[in-house]
Amino acid sequence: MRLTQPRIEPLPTEQIPEELRRYVSAGSAGSMGPILNVYRTVARHAKLAKRWLVFGTHVMAKSSLSHRERELLILRTGFLCRSEYEWGQHAVIGKLAGISDAELVRIGLGPDAPGWSAFEAALLRAADELHEDSFVSDATWQALRAQYGEEQMLDLLFTVGQYTLVSMVLNSCGVQLEPGTAGWPEELRVLVQ
């Protein structure tokens, strides 16, 4: 399912409007680093990019979820959507949030894989249920509500929704992995074919 060439070419960095360039630079605070292909692709529609980035920033930086919980949801969603680009980018971010290599493989195996806490299994199950049925079951909802308030539940739903949307765009536009970014781990490659 993965396209080997982009359907929409990423915009060259020098053509990205300055306000977007500052917003999506991968450099450290105050420096201009490389701009990822996902942003260079969406920059082809600057008005859309500007508005989408506000929402994406909430999900990534202002959400009430812990970084680890957010990344578990994003990685499971990227896996379910078969988005290798999403997986590759968030495997790196997930490791920074404390997710181990073994857990990355386990995310692909799903909520019933041995080793998850009951709560983390419920997080992964919520991503599965939203992917399959666009609805979180009562049992999963109650398991999550044991630790989450209303804001966290809304952030969970919008995180899965955001990364389902992003995965659709990445897959359909053929956004390619950046050089040096790994895609699927070997243990999961057979599951995404």
Largest sheet at a glance?
none
Q: How would you name the oligomeric state of the polypeptide chains in this document?
A: single chain
* Annotation field: number of helices: 10
Number of domains: 2
Average pLDDT, rounded to a whole number, is 93
The CATH class label of the largest domain is: Mainly Alpha
SSE pattern, N- to C-terminal: HHHHHHHHHH
Helix content, binned percent: 55-70%
Radius of gyration, taken over Cα atoms and rounded to an integer in Å: 17 Å
Give the percentage of residues in beta strands.
under 5%
What is the overall silhouette?
Answer: globular
> What is the count of β-strands?
0
Q: In CATH terms, what is the fold-level topology of the largest domain?
A: AhpD-like
Structural class: mainly alpha
The stretches of 5 or more residues where confidence is low (pLDDT under 50) are 27-31
**CATH homologous superfamily of the largest domain, by name?**
AhpD-like
- Ends distance: 8 Å
CATH architecture of the largest domain: Up-down Bundle
What does this structure look like?
About 3% of the residues have low confidence. The chain contains ten helices and no strands. It is mainly α and 193 residues long. The protein starts with 17 loop residues before the first helix and ends with a helix. α3 crosses α9, α4 packs parallel to α9 and α7 packs across α9. It has two domains: 48 residues; 129 residues, AhpD-like.
